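New to this. Explain the following:
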Amino acid sequence: MIRFIYNLLWPLGLLFFLPGYFTKMLRRGGYREKFGQRLGIYDRRLRARLSKQRSTWLHAVSVGEVNVALKLANALRTHEPDLHCALTTTTTTGFALARKNAPLWIEVMYTPLDYWPIMRRAFSFIRPVCIVLVEAEIWPNLAAEAHARRIPLALVNARLSARSERRYRQFRFFIAPTFRLLDLVCVPEKEDAKRWAALGVSQDRIRLTGSIKYDPAGLDQVAEIQETAHPVSLNHLEPESPVLFGGSTHRGEEEVLANIFLRLRQQFPSLRLFIAPRHVERLREIRAQLDALRLQVTLASEALAHRELNVDCLLLDTTGELQRWYGIATVVFIGKSITAHGGQNPVEPILAGKPVVFGPHMENFATLAKALVSKKGAIQVRDIDSLELAIAELLRDSDARQRLVQSAHEVLSEHQGATMRAAMLIHELHLGL
């Protein structure tokens, strides 16, 4: 009955959210490419490729989840050498990243909208043998269709904040039936296990694996990426130039970092500011703010083209390459933690061997942030003034930077092997063990 009501109201909901949906797509660009896939419409060549073998269907919303999905897919292939995957993603940025980095045995597509005729059509072409959802992206029709066809359904990296649990609890009557269709839930922390159980997932289907996103198993791959990616950036920056790096910044944080940079440059004359905004569509707005502060600003694409990075501030204008740029940083500020709430993932700069500083708002990564701070693997500041003091101290003290990084790696080591543990559980689920 609940699913019937969901499908009955779905077209009305689509009409209600359509203006905002199209506005976001227009702002981010690339919305026309393969738009039909969102409606379960696939071209002849794609249908032919999908028909050659059945696939494990991985679903990841955007860039962060795509990285987890790709990491997990490689681990799954160690158990099934002939594995083929269909990787669906919701955003254009996630799609671009997946298409750029996915091997030939992974078919990259857009996620079909969760309306029963669309989802049913998608299932008939993808023909999944197993479905793996990344990070709490559970849709009623997708789950119901998988259950009806007896296709195992797994959820990995299933972190669930206290805030999200409270929100879900308000609608538990409606969502619990969908959550009960999950055959396997791989959670990063013990607290996540308790929260999923409280929302209706059977305890015997929940497994504590650690976080794939925090799994340091890919350290060698990260080092390799840093050595091969953007050699121009590393060779054309003065070696003695320290770099303050703002990663995945949100509105207001670019201006905060710029003002801190201007004050700190009196102590560190060769200091450079690198900013990677979370949403590249804000570049024009950010550049106007920085220009107003009389900073010499250039885009990363322009700087690389002209072999010139020795400007005051460099703005990253590409998506999915942040990890490749962290190697140039001296100190990294984690965005969405000072002027916005939630925080961004601090793991990427840590894996790149860089010390991290973040503000008081790390709700989306609360457990990890608390562990990092308590074990002296990161610095958490209260406000803008203390942020400036922390950055200045780290710029002065290379030993302090190294101690932070070493301690941070020790925290991440608790998640060592999370990817392979999740892959083994999914393999066993697929085989019905």
About this structure: Residues 2-28 form the longest helix (27 residues).
